[in-house]
Design goal:
254 residues, alpha/beta, Rossmann fold, 7 strands, 40% helix
């Protein structure tokens, strides 16, 4: 078993689908999606499908093992020993919320030195908030290159500033917790804004000990949105946060 084990830890709406799609495009990887997502049991097939041909058990059997013991599930289903020799890296992705809701998974990553961490962050929490709200409204969480985005500037909504502040606080706390929790692990931290540039790809391939290959995502990053056009009370929101630690999120319109 010479492949690299990895986990991609991320906030919602931070480019994780784009990044994982890039990793999936490498011919020597086996990748799983959000296999510990408790909020979307209807999407289980999508979470396993990219590595389905390499699995020794059915998805139904994998799920039953996961429900009984998460460590056993990781050892015997995800990070099993008998992948084909050409597989160089195997991993899955998990949100902050799912990580902290699954203590066995959180500790498994911490205690297993062989599991490398990719921590994907998005500094502008207001962009995360807007993207999350719009995805809820449009029901479009992933934009494949062959589909049209349903994210026009005409789709607007009102922001509750108190709820938004709680959202910022919770995300910052979870991000800091992840950084502190895994500070002694072999961690690669990537920023959302750098994903399109591609300059990070050699670092990623080195981190996962992958042979060099061109990476190509089959999903698109969401287009930048003009905050003032989509938020009905943008001036109120901007004024509320102007003297806060988050004021820079509103200093320029994306």
């Amino acid at each position: 078993m010479n492949y690299t084990k990895f986990v991609l830890i991320h906030a919602p709406r931070s480019g994780s689908n784009f990044l994982m799609s890039k990793i999936q495009s490498h011919p020597n990887t086996a990748t799983f999606s959000e296999i510990f997502n408790a909020n979307d049991k209807s999407n289980e097939y999508q979470n396993f499908c990219h590595a389905l041909a390499l699995m020794d058990v059915t998805i139904e059997r994998a799920i039953s093992i996961r429900e009984l013991n998460q460590s056993t599930f990781l050892n015997e289903v995800i990070f099993k020993e008998d992948y084909p020799d050409f597989i160089e890296a195997v991993g899955f992705k998990i949100t902050y919320e799912d990580l902290f809701n699954n203590k066995d998974v959180m500790n498994y990553i911490l205690e297993n030195d062989s599991v490398k961490v990719i921590h994907l962050i998005r500094e502008n929490l207001f962009d995360i908030y807007i993207s999350f709200r719009r995805a809820l409204l449009t029901k479009q969480w992933v934009i494949h290159r062959w589909t049209s985005p349903n994210l026009s500037d005409e789709l607007s909504f009102h922001v509750d500033v108190k709820q938004c502040e709680i959202f910022f606080t919770n995300l910052e706390q979870m991000r800091s917790h992840v950084q502190e929790l895994y500070k002694n692990k072999n961690t690669l931290e990537l920023e959302y804004c750098d994903l399109v540039e591609g300059i990070w790809e050699p670092d990623l391939q080195n981190h996962l000990r992958l042979s060099k290959a061109d990476l190509a995502a089959n999903v698109s990053k969401n287009q930048k949105i003009n905050h003032s056009l989509v938020i009905e009370n943008y001036q109120e929101v901007q004024n509320y946060f102007k003297n806060s630690q988050w004021s820079t999120f509103f200093s320029t319109s994306p």
